[in-house]
Write a structure and sequence with these properties.
89 residues, mainly alpha, 89% helix
Length: 89
């Protein structure tokens, strides 16, 4: 028994419960992040595919592929640049 009336076992039990809650919250957040990332990737793939199909009808397959490819690279570069700007201190 400690001087303040609490025991070491109570402190360990309370800290363990807090740790379990925090780990659970982090895991739920990570699952939501992964699921959201999958949906974003699938949505972007459908958007790029629909743009390619629309352009292919008017200017041919090679030109449409080139335009959509350049646009995808530009959007990817913007995403990487944004990520770097938000994570640098």
């Amino acid at each position: 028994m400690r001087a303040d009336g609490g025991s070491l076992r109570d402190n360990v039990r309370n800290e363990g419960a807090l740790l379990r809650k925090i780990v659970g919250d982090v895991l739920v957040g990570m699952v939501a992040l992964v699921a959201g990332g999958v949906f974003v990737i699938v949505g972007a793939a459908f958007l790029i595919a629909s743009l390619f199909i629309a352009l292919q009808a008017t200017m041919g397959q090679a030109s449409a592929a080139a335009i959509v490819g350049v646009m995808a690279v530009i959007l990817g570069a913007i995403a990487v640049w944004t990520f770097r700007k938000t994570t640098q201190k």
